[in-house]
């Protein structure tokens, strides 16, 4: 494997920076079950990092560790060069890490616009008293955030469903709104848990385009989990492969594709 | 107009106003249920506790006087001051916020992700604790609550209606004040939840805990906020009911009247709580007026519950509750 510690340039000419997040020897246990076993990897500024693996490999668990929903039994999470203390998920979000969920977690009763406005929550600074009284800063702030959200709505081409309660939207659009809510936070790191699960080819193409554009236009670092191998290989700069809670491969798509352990995990191997 | 009809109109108006009082209590339930899925059995006791605290602070009562006197052999009862009503109200709001923080810190925090029935049991415990605590703190005798709200028959309405119809309407001025205050309360709560950042966070938490966490909302803060607002609503209900019938233990039982209101209005709808309260208020007064004499009267005691039962059979989600759709 190439040494990439000082950043690198991708095949399509994008500059990838230094380490943003580093997972060091993460182990996660639930009672007697070991979901993640001693895994280390890093995510670099500006890259698209994929985590792949068969069902039950522990990919979502890993994403949950990054976003603070799970607390690792062992190991350390380093973010921007310092060790992250134990944090609640909302504190992780306040640090600039936004995420989407495998099974869409939107506020179903609220409109697309309101859903995305909640994404701005970590960026709103006015106090509760100001909010309650609708004083100076609160009012100005609201319109600024509204503007930022409208830009993302344009970007994701969902102007038409601005006021629709998201519970009524078709699956593919809900996924898009969820991405929008995460983007509204203007995150440093965006975590996507199977952003294309359950989509048809056309929807997958749209979503891939949005992911690439987010990375390209906003410079957002992205870590994603995906099942569709074709999509992963097209999108990502580097790939971590997990199987039964262990890391069995790490590298560029080409390196991973030719890794014998990875091929065995995906195609199966005879144990004789 | 015939007197019978005029009387019916008067009964309806009185029923509407009684309904507002029910709605005030139901509102507290809805707020907490929406945000956390907890049916807060202690809501009625919170109203009692708020009213007791208000009266105690206003009259300069020494809290825990009995306990202090029993332990130290002293004989203290009053600080000897009398606070203006608005100061006492603001202090009581502070006490209710403190209560919300304590409830979150020592009860809810430890029961995160538990079954709703366990949280419900916890609020029953909380209700009995607060009942005893309120007694110990402020004494158990019936107290008069006077924050300067107008009371008694509204002479101007009586006179005006007498001039128009030759029949004077009896409307309690306290009921009018209660209606105005309840309307203001509902409007401000609605505006707060629709247009403020915290209100949006509140709705978000009510909708999906996990998603709320992922956008950086602290559940603990929201719970303290919700319980504070519910405490404030309890205070308003406590003031109104206390001014009407004195501050006494039975105040906590008005919570029971809120139950049929919630069955009608749905547990998750603020407008539902209001409309439900109004329907129950008008329904029970009109029923007593029209059918009561035929079946021996005293229908007000059970009418609301029978109506709620009918709703449970034919429209279990209430008038405004979210529709129950079973997906197979």
From TrEMBL, chain A:
One of its GO terms (cellular component) is plasma membrane. One of its GO terms (molecular function) is ATP hydrolysis activity. InterPro entries: AAA+_ATPase (IPR003593), ABC_AA/LPS_Transport (IPR051120), ABC_transporter-like_ATP-bd (IPR003439), BCA_ABC_TP_C (IPR032823), P-loop_NTPase (IPR027417). Pfam families: ABC_tran (PF00005), BCA_ABC_TP_C (PF12399). Residues 21-269 form the ABC transporter domain. PROSITE patterns: ABC_TRANSPORTER_2. Keywords: ATP-binding, Hydrolase, Nucleotide-binding, Transport. Signal peptide: none annotated. It comes from the Bacteria. Its EC number is 3.6.3.25. It is an enzyme of class 3 (hydrolase). SMART domains: AAA. PANTHER family: ABC TRANSPORTER ATP-BINDING PROTEIN (PTHR45772:SF1), CONSERVED COMPONENT OF ABC TRANSPORTER FOR NATURAL AMINO ACIDS-RELATED (PTHR45772). This is Sulfate/thiosulfate import ATP-binding protein CysA. It comes from Actibacterium lipolyticum. The lineage of its organism: Bacteria, Pseudomonadati, Pseudomonadota, Alphaproteobacteria, Rhodobacterales.
From TrEMBL, chain B:
Keywords: Amino-acid transport, Cell membrane, Membrane, Transmembrane, Transmembrane helix, Transport. It is a multi-pass membrane protein. GO terms for molecular function: transmembrane transporter activity. It is found in: Cell membrane. One of its GO terms (cellular component) is plasma membrane. Pfam families: BPD_transp_2. The chain crosses the membrane at residues 6-31, 38-59, 79-103, 110-130, 176-196, 217-241, 261-282, 294-314. GO terms for biological process: amino acid transport. InterPro entries: ABC_transp_permease, BCAA_transport_permease. Belongs to the binding-protein-dependent transport system permease family. LivHM subfamily. This is High-affinity branched-chain amino acid transport system permease protein LivH. It comes from Actibacterium lipolyticum.
């Amino acid at each position: 494997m190439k040494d990439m510690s000082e950043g690198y340039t991708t095949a399509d000419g994008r500059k990838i920076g230094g380490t943003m997040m580093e997972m060091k020897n993460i182990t996660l246990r639930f009672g007697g079950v070991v979901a993640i076993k001693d895994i280390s990897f890093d995510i670099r500024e500006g890259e698209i990092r994929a985590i792949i693996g068969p069902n039950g490999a522990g990919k979502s668990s890993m994403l949950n560790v990054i976003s603070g929903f799970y607390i690792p039994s062992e190991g350390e999470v380093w973010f921007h060069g310092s060790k992250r203390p134990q944090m609640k998920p909302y504190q992780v979000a306040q640090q600039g890490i936004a995420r989407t969920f495998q099974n869409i977690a939107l506020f179903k009763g609220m409109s697309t616009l309101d859903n995305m406005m909640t994404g701005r929550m970590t960026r709103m600074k006015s106090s509760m008293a100001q909010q309650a009284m609708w004083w100076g800063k609160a009012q100005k702030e609201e319109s600024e955030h509204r503007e930022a959200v409208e830009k993302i709505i344009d970007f994701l081409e969902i102007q038409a469903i601005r006021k629709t309660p998201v519970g009524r939207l078709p699956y593919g659009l809900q996924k898009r709104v969820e991405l929008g809510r995460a983007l509204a936070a203007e995150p440093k790191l965006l975590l996507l848990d199977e952003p294309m699960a359950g989509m048809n080819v056309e929807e997958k193409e749209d979503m891939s385009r949005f992911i690439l554009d987010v990375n390209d236009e906003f410079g957002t670092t992205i870590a994603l989990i995906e099942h569709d191998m074709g999509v992963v290989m097209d999108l990502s700069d580097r790939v971590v492969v997990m199987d039964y809670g262990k890391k069995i491969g790490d590298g560029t798509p080409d390196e991973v594709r030719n890794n014998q352990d990875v091929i065995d995990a995906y195609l199966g191997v005879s144990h004789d | 107009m015939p007197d019978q009809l005029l009387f019916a109109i008067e009964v309806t108006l009185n029923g509407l106003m009684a309904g507002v009082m029910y709605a005030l209590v139901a509102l507290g339930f809805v707020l907490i249920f929406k945000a956390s899925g907890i049916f807060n059995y202690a809501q009625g006791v919170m109203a009692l506790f708020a009213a007791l605290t208000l009266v105690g602070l206003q009259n300069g009562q020494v809290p825990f006087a009995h306990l202090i006197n029993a332990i130290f052999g002293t004989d203290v009862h009053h600080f000897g001051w009398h606070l203006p009503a608005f100061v006492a109200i603001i202090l009581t709001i502070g006490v209710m916020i403190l209560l919300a923080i304590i409830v979150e810190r020592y009860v809810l925090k430890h029961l995160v992700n538990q079954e709703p029935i366990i949280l419900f049991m916890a609020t029953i415990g909380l209700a009995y604790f607060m009942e005893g605590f309120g007694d110990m703190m402020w004494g158990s005798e019936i107290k008069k609550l006077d924050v300067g709200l107008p009371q008694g028959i509204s002479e101007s309405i009586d006179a005006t209606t007498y001039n128009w119809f030759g029949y004077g309407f009896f409307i309690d001025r306290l009921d009018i004040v209660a209606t105005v205050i309840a309307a203001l309360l509902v409007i401000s709560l609605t505006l707060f939840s629709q247009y403020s950042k915290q209100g949006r966070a509140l709705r978000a938490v009510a909708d999906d805990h996990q998603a709320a966490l992922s956008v950086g909302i602290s559940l603990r803060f929201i719970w303290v906020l919700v319980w504070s607002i519910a405490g404030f609503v309890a205070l308003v209900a406590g003031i109104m009911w206390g001014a009407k019938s004195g501050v006494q233990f039975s105040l906590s039982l008005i919570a029971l009247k809120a139950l049929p209101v919630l069955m009608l209005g749905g547990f998750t709808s603020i407008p539902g709580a209001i409309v439900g309260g109004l329907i129950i208020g008008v329904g029970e007064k009109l029923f007593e007026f029209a059918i009561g004499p035929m079946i021996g009267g005293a229908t007000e005691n059970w009418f609301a519950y029978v109506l709620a039962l009918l709703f449970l059979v034919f429209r279990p989600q209430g008038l405004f509750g979210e529709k129950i759709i079973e997906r197979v």
